[in-house]
């Protein structure tokens, strides 16, 4: 039969297309299997007429955990022989039957190829391990050459060895997997997590793409980073980001609690308390976790939130399952109550601990301390009731009976003397403690008290020395050290020792860059620089405060005001600076949410500057409408204004009155003075009456 060449050409083209289609389908199936696209892998595998297709289809079902579909596929190939159907059939049984039944299915089963011999042995070892026979699993593993096993097999073997505390072998296998250039992402990540090394976890976190696993690895890495001061901030950011965005992620709860505990160990008590609180809110089951509640209680106690700490320690006592923890929680409740001068309640807790858990470590020293603690609580109660004389005697008795408590009792005696109005004796006792007390903490506390005492007495020099000594030598790591430096700087400023004030505020900024006192210190530094006419330096410092997002609105306002003041002072040598100052004051007046005192202060400075540049009509209007009337309106609304603003009101009124009088407009001058007389500024009202009488007498002639 003759066949045309055209027909042969078409037939050949169709044959080639079908052949290459099958070849392409097989390639696609393999790629899809590698990329985790299981349904696409099965679809293309079934298109290809190739011995490999059954293995691809079965592996895709296995990866997806579709064991029933996998068994149906095997039934459809019931005549298929060899390792592939045998292995996947036993794999499906392992996944769907009980451990005992699955182990029986291995009886008489054998494989031919080394790869499936290994896979079968590993599968059986895994079943034995999960059924509790770790030693049997290890024996199977040891019967095979681990060097020929792939990375996933090594991971299963390492898990078995680790369960038997054969740690050297487990870690060796994990290191082999981690070092392998061909290890799958899953195997490498598992090895890195088990090894727990920061560098490996960083690589694992970068490599893994699956969102759930990436979160798990990220939390592992975050906890590891939290263990080092150098990487703490990085770990903190990572744990917070993952736990906040994915609270249901595996390990999120544990990692966030780990962060809270890390804050506590670093003595960052505010962050610790906040983290514990957020953890309990995010994961309510933590409300019954003893360790979490105990950590939260300690953080609150260290923050000085004694009432909340007391509640938390009571919660720990309620939740604790062992006597030692219950006893410790009771003792801490007693300590907190004692610090709150609730001595009767404190003693109830101590006695309950002694009676209920006499052998607990927390109670061993309690017996000898109960009586004195009770007595100290009584003394504190007397002090709190302003019964200073009785409290003084009580503290003196305790000091006599227990020399370990003597420094603290002498400090309390000093407070009693001050409370009794015996200031000189209190100061002498404070001086003695600050100079010679063996307890460094009490020595520092006495010095700090004495510094405050001198400051209130306007003994600036003594105050400055003691505040500085406290922050520099005695307790530089104390939470009160930055505040002491700030007060030292203020004392120096009060002495007109502007250079000293600058040096102290500079030390505050350098030594305590994160302190809340830094910004007030910079403001004081800027003011001191202005006082020394070092305007350029002042502006540099003040600009930083004005731009600092951490600065409060009133602090930013103060910084801008001082910069404008500096510009105004420069006007004495260069009159064009007055115009610059006016612009700055005008910009300040436009700020939203200015307080009434701030509005009056800026308005006064605007009026004063207008006067300097000769714009008298505008100056008079500003003095009257924006200062004098504004002050009256605020007072009518019940707004309380401080002495500084009262003084500004008086200055504006007298300046405007004098201006009208100089213009021969005495009636206007008298009207302004009458406004002052009706005001709440007594000293200014008295002066206004005298001025008014003088103008009236002048008119009588």
Could you characterize what this model shows?
77% of the residues lie in helices and 0% in strands. The protein is an all-alpha fold and 701 residues long. Mean pLDDT is 86; it is low at 1-22. α3 (53-64) runs antiparallel to α4, α10 crosses α11 (185-195) and α16 packs antiparallel against α17. The protein has helices at residues 5-35, 38-47, 53-64, 67-76, 83-96, 99-105, 114-130, 134-142, 151-163, 167-179, 185-195, 198-207, 211-225, 232-245, 252-265, 269-282, 290-302, 306-319, 323-339, 343-356, 366-384, 388-401, 406-419, 423-436, 440-456, 460-474, 481-494, 498-511, 518-531, 535-547, 553-570, 576-589, 596-612, 616-636, 643-662, 666-677, 682-700.
What is the end-to-end distance? Answer: 150 Å
Main sheet summary: none
Secondary-structure-derived class: mainly alpha
**Spans of 5+ residues with little confidence (pLDDT < 50)?**
1-22
Q: Specify the number of helices.
A: 37
Roughly what is the average pLDDT, rounded to an integer? 86
Q: State the helical fraction.
A: over 70%
User: How would the global form be characterised?
Assistant: elongated
Relative strand content: under 5%
């Amino acid at each position: 039969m003759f066949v045309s060449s055209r027909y042969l050409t078409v037939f050949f083209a169709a044959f080639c297309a079908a052949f290459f289609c099958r070849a392409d389908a097989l390639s696609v199936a393999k790629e899809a299997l590698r990329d985790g696209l299981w349904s696409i892998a099965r679809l293309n595998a079934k298109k290809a007429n190739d011995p490999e297709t059954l293995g691809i289809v079965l592996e895709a079902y296995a990866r997806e955990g579709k064991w029933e579909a996998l068994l149906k596929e095997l039934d459809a190939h019931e005549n298929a022989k060899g390792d592939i159907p045998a292995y996947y059939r036993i794999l499906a049984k392992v996944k769907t039957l009980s451990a005992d039944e699955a182990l029986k299915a291995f009886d008489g089963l054998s494989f031919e190829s080394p790869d499936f011999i290994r896979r079968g042995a590993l599968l059986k070892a895994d079943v034995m391990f999960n059924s509790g026979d770790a030693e049997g699993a290890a024996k199977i593993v040891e019967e095979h050459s681990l060097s020929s096993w792939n990375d996933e097999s090594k991971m299963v073997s390492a898990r078995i060895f680790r369960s038997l505390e054969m740690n050297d072998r487990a870690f060796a296998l994990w290191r082999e997997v981690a070092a392998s250039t061909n290890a799958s992402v899953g195997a490498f990540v598992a090895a890195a997590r088990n090894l727990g090394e920061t560098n490996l976890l960083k690589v694992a976190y970068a490599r893994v793409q699956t969102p759930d696993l990436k979160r798990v690895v990220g939390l592992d890495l975050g906890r590891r980073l939290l263990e080092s001061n150098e990487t703490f901030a990085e770990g903190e950011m990572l744990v917070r980001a993952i736990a906040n965005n994915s609270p249901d992620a595996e390990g999120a709860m544990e990692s966030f609690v780990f962060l809270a505990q890390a804050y506590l160990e670093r003595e960052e008590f505010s962050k610790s308390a906040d983290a514990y609180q957020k953890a309990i809110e995010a994961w309510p089951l933590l409300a019954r976790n003893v360790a979490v509640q105990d950590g939260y209680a300690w953080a609150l106690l260290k923050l000085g939130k004694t009432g909340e700490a007391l509640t938390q320690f009571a919660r720990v006592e309620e939740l604790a399952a062992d006597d030692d923890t219950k006893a410790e929680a009771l003792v801490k409740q007693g300590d907190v109550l004692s610090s709150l001068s609730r001595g009767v309640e404190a003693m109830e807790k101590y006695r309950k601990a002694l009676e209920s858990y006499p052998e607990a470590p927390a109670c061993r020293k309690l017996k000898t301390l109960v009586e004195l603690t009770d007595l100290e609580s009584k003394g504190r109660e007397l002090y709190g009731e302003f019964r200073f004389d009785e409290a003084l005697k009580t503290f003196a008795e305790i000091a006599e009976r227990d020399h370990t408590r003597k420094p603290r009792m002498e400090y309390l005696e000093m407070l009693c003397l001050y409370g009794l109005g015996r200031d000189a004796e209190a100061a002498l006792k404070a001086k003695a403690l600050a100079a010679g007390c063996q307890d460094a903490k009490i020595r520092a506390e006495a010095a700090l008290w004495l510094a405050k005492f001198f400051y209130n007495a306007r003994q600036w020099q003594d105050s400055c020395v003691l505040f500085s000594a406290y922050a520099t030598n005695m307790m530089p790591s104390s939470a009160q050290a930055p505040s002491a430096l700030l007060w030292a700087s203020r004392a120096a400023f009060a002495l007109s020792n502007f250079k000293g004030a600058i040096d102290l505020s500079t030390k505050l900024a350098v030594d305590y860059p994160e302190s809340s006192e830094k910004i007030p210190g910079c403001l004081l530094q800027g003011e001191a620089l202005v006082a020394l006419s070092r305007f350029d330096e002042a502006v540099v410092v003040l600009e930083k405060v004005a731009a600092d997002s951490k600065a409060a609105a009133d602090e930013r306002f103060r910084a801008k005001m001082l910069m404008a003041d500096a510009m105004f002072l420069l006007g004495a040598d260069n009159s064009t600076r007055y115009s610059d100052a006016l612009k700055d004051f005008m910009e300040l007046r436009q700020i939203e949410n200015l307080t009434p005192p701030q509005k009056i202060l800026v308005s006064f400075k605007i009026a004063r500057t207008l006067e300097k540049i000769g714009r008298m009509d505008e100056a008079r209007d500003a003095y009257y409408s924006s200062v004098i009337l504004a002050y009256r309106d605020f007072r009518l609304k019940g707004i309380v204004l401080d002495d500084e603003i009262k003084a500004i009101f008086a200055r504006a009124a007298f300046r405007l009155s004098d201006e009208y009088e100089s213009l021969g407009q005495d009636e206007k001058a008298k009207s302004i003075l009458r406004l002052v007389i009706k005001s709440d500024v007594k000293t200014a009202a008295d002066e206004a009456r005298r001025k008014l009488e003088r103008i009236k007498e002048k008119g009588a002639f």
